[in-house]
User: What shape does this take?
Amino acid sequence: MSAVTVSLLQYSCSESPPENREKVENLIAQAAGNGAQLIALQELFDTTYFCREVDQRFFEWAEPVPGPATDQFTKLAKQLGVVILLPLFEKKAAGVYFNTLVVIEKDGTIPGIYRKMHIPDDPGFYEKYYFTPGDLGFRVFDTSCGKIGTLICWDQWFPEAARITAMKGADILIYPTAIGTLPEESDTEKREFMNAWKTIQQSHAIANGCYVASINRTGEEGGTRFWGSSFICGPFGEMLAAGGEEEEIITSEIDFSIIEKHRQIWPFFRDRRIDYYKGILKRYF
Assistant: This one.
């Protein structure tokens, strides 16, 4: 399949996972009804972004894969005939939890999962308390909607993650996200941060000659204002579809057949000096 219609679901969450799942079911059905074939959800799709604080009670929201959430949404994917990218709080074992994205095929099967590789630990983003760093490496899934590279939020700031995933064959890099403005940050800082957030991801598209889609939540949680602004951009960083700060579905048709021609014109992979890149394996020179 060369042309695929992609929808990103941008919404706010309450502290009730069942309520959030019902909301997401309705949004997926709406997107599918409008022709979406690949539907991507935001980071931690059915909870608030609880990493704003350190609180042991939030571990109760974690669940195994497969588990209740995947059971619910594999059935929905099969019913609607769509591919769903489902990011959730995974419980692997007692004391071992991951920030995970589950890939669900349109027939309801699960080709695999990706576990977030880069885990931040900053004010308002205390993820190291909750999540073990991903242990599956960077992954690409060959689905009925193309070769999908799965990355999550903090991963989006690292060119190495985008490069490796693209080199593994990804036609599109998908970044489920939870990013916004902390209570002490100004509107000026918000604009600066949001512009940088968009720019770094558009640069991944350009440097790797592939599509990029980023899905961010909306709403206010504990004083943090999530800025939404989910978007889909093409292989030269061009914006194909973008959202605002309210709840909405962002949709665009993308054509994977243009990637080869684009890379012929901009042959970054060809001209890489891999014989001089050993230093990238060092923490710092």
